Model the fold of this input.
Amino acid sequence: MTLLEAMACGTPLVVSDIPAFRDVAGQSQAVFAPPGDADAWGDAVSSLIEDTERRDVMKYEGRKVAERHAWPLVAQRVLEVYRRVSG
Done:
């Protein structure tokens, strides 16, 4: 949830490289760093500070992901599934 909220705000992400976060964000929405590797985290943050274009892409792509997970859209998809299975 926190990742989606950050993406909705247009925040470039540096996140732990764990499956749950990869399920939400891809390479165009986040920079992944191994948990517990302070050097990798520092490199990830530094790379974003230096790369304005990448930050802009991440902001744009992140907002698109967040929009696809907005509650009204998710609720509509759930209702559609219920309608299909209830016949």
Notes: The first strand starts at residue 13 and ends at 16. The mean pLDDT is 94. The helical segments are 2-8, 19-24, 38-50, 52-68, 71-86.
